[in-house]
Amino acid sequence: MDNVYVTATFCLLVASAVVLSPLPRYLTSPNARIALVVVSAASVVPLFFLANTATSSHPTMASSDPPAPIRPTPSTVAQHLAGAPESWHGKITADGPHPPEADRYHLYIGLFCPFAHRANLVRHIKGLQDILPITVVKPYPKGDESGWPGWAFPATADEYEGATPDPLFGARYMHEIYFKANPAYPGRYSVPVLWDKNASTIVNNESPELMRDLQTGFNSLLPADKAAITLYPESLRAQIDAESVWMQRDLNTGVYKAGFATSQEAYDAAVPVVFAALNRLEKLIAKGGGPFILGKQLTELDVRAYATLIRFDTVYVQHFKCNLGTIRHDYPQTNNWLSYLYYHVPGFRETTDFRHIKENYTKSHKDINPRGITPMGPWPDVEPGYEPDLTKVRVGGVQMPQVLELEAKIEPKM
């Protein structure tokens, strides 16, 4: 249609040129000029008529197209971490709309994401790999500042090692999964997402809830030894609940508050909070006696802390500028604990992919790292060697006065 209007415009220009330009002597008479203008103008009229007819002859073409996806509402990192505008909070229960069944559910994750890492860790610890398959999005790009178009799936299995095409819908982007559950979904397209194939909807996209619910949701389908595994034992629930508050607030999301600070003042306020939490964790591990945070029992606290700390020296020290110290040099108890989980507890190393982790942060945060260069270190990714007698391991920490002051305020008191 644009070509019709272009041609009409050209004809009008020709008519104007006829009037204004010098012509051969035999066309210089007034009658000759008028005749040329009439001919040129006459050629324009059918073209405008054609354009108008072509446009009006298909009045329903635009309305037959599917509506454009609603882009997410731009939000700050703090707002996003506080919760999406809309979330799904379903559970796998025998008496609910999402009963436990093999091959009914699908988990979408990113290997780079610490929050999705929690859900995948529980999946491995509980032995749900055959019951609950996963699809892994690529670690970058993630879209614009408001999250559009969001995480992408590879077109083929070998496009990016470890990332997998979407087997359910052949989707290109994670937002397509969200729009299948709610075409007007207004938030960011985060992972993890638990999808119910029978109900054709999202069950849950909140990582703390998935970390808890995946421990019990499929127990009826598991062998007795796996069904018996819990990361939230009755005897430790009160302590897990209490310690989870500061861990989530100051450590799990604290690194993001520091990394995405948009002013010097915000950064200076956020970083000491992170290291106050690390100081607290260092003492908590030493007090428990190992090998886990609360002693002999692997709990949700280990899953929460691991998903953040396995990324700490690798990404958060340099990329998020959380550089008052490192795990491997300033926190011997925590480093010892991290090494034990990574090298000796099934599920932890298998769910950790350092290429996905490094390239996600360094290649998708253009405002922080505009050239997208990924650092090589540190080496090794996790230091090997575990000392089971924690009395032989120094209790470390960052002794910066501001950090110590914030540490003393953490509740509950030790």
UniProtKB/TrEMBL annotation:
Q: Entry's InterPro entries? A: Glutathione-S-Trfase_C_sf, Glutathione_S-Trfase, Glutathione_S-Trfase_N, GST_Omega-like_C, GST_Omega/GSH, Thioredoxin-like_sf
Keywords for this protein: Membrane, Transmembrane, Transmembrane helix
Q: Where is the GST N-terminal domain?
A: 112-215
CDD domains membership: GST_C_Omega_like (cd03190)
Q: Which residues cross the membrane?
A: 6-27, 34-51
Cell inner membrane among the record's keywords? no
| UniProt similarity note | Belongs to the GST superfamily.
Q: Tell me what this protein is called.
A: GST N-terminal domain-containing protein
